[in-house]
Amino acid sequence: MHTDLSAARTAVHAGRQSALALLAEAQAAAEQPAARHVFIRTFGEQAQAAARAADLAAAAGAPGLPLAGLAISVKDLFDVAGHPTTAGSVVLADAPPAARDATAVARLRQAGAALVGHTNMTEFAFSGVGWNPHYGTPVNPSDTSVERIPGGSTSGGAVSVALGAAWAALGSDTGGSIRIPAALQGLVGFKNTACLTPLDGCVPLSTTLDTACAITKSVRDAVLLHEILAARSVRLQARPLSGWRLAVARTTMLDGMDDTVADAFAQALQRLRDQGAQIKEIALAELAELADIQATGGFAAAESWAWHRARLQASEDRYDPRVAQRIRRGAAMGAADYIDLIQARRAWIARVEQRLAGFDAVLSPTVPVVAPTLASIAEDDAEFFRVNALLLRNPSVVNMLDGCALSLPCHRPGQLPVGLMVWAGHLQDDTVLSVSLEIEAALAATKGD
């Protein structure tokens, strides 16, 4: 089996591997018991047509498309022409088929993707846990001894990649919805600067914070998917680890780590230092201000309430109560509260960017805990909301910063997955991708030590 999408597409382009055969393997992976609840609907005929076209191009010696007829899953938040978009909810179960692709989907299709299906997700993307009472919750495949949460809200997308049912997953990230499931499942999740990818044809959660982006198997795949989704060329900077100025933020980001995450994060930092990385711990006290800034509910509450208020009035009994509860927080926010939030965020971003001016990127645990068990949050609302807040805490910092971040695995073999988050401010995407490639290579070189 190829290690990642980049290796698979090289094989397809060279005619050494059939895209149709690889698609058949992906579809078989989607039908295994471990993939239960991963897909809400599949696009079998469309996927086969894309794979067949890739094989014909290779046979004719024609230049191959960037995604080479390979399986890509789509979060049930993005319009795919000819299929309904239901956002993981029964509230939209009667939605008509989309007349056209969302721009992000269209760009994947134009790049030769075999779009294999809409993946399950947290209802309306409003949780980092991945729980879905309507369509079932996809099970994290990283632990076969006990059922663990997948992370959300791009839950099914991450599991599709982890199980081999897709090479990459289109998803969204509003407070960590790409990076959380990537971290909990040992995958790569890149949240680009929000303005770089169009969101038309996507059911909104927060129009201020939503980002269209992808989960992949490697950092080089993250570069490829970002170039396609953002329709831009990444300018990679070839520098050794010693050439980057890296910080570790102590405030908030390191609180509440469980033993596995604390050990994996400390070991990863040491392995990077052993490879020449210059890493400095900083306080970054501004992170402690976020709780007060968002005390009235934040952008997600206000902006989701604006979109859902009529639907809640008509169909609240069909919502996941945990999602409805979070949306309803926005009802208490007035226009002045919202304007205050915008202004407070703008001032906070300026202070944080000034504090980080001497660094290329910041390193943090993506989330402070390994994936909790499904049983621990299934019936206990208090525990669900505690876990949800803990999972969202670190990655949501980057969304509020209007920045970019990549989560990549940093655990040792035999450990439950742990994510290392590499992050920076607005439009520093190429820097984050460049240093992440170096970090990935350095951690891989020392993984067996």
Automatic annotation (TrEMBL):
What's the name of the protein?
Answer: Amidase
Q: Which domain of life is it from?
A: Bacteria
Record domain Amidase: where: 26-433
Identify the NCBIfam families for this entry.
PRK07056.1
Q: Does the keyword DNA-binding belong to this entry?
A: no
Q: What is its EC number?
A: 3.5.1.4
Give the matching PANTHER family: AMIDASE AMID-RELATED, TRANSAMIDASE
- Pfam families annotated for this entry? Amidase (PF01425)
Species of the source: Caldimonas thermodepolymerans
User: Which residue spans traverse the membrane?
Assistant: none
Keyword Hydrolase part of the UniProt annotation: yes
Which molecular function term from Gene Ontology is one that the record holds? amidase activity
The alphabetical list of record keywords is:
Hydrolase
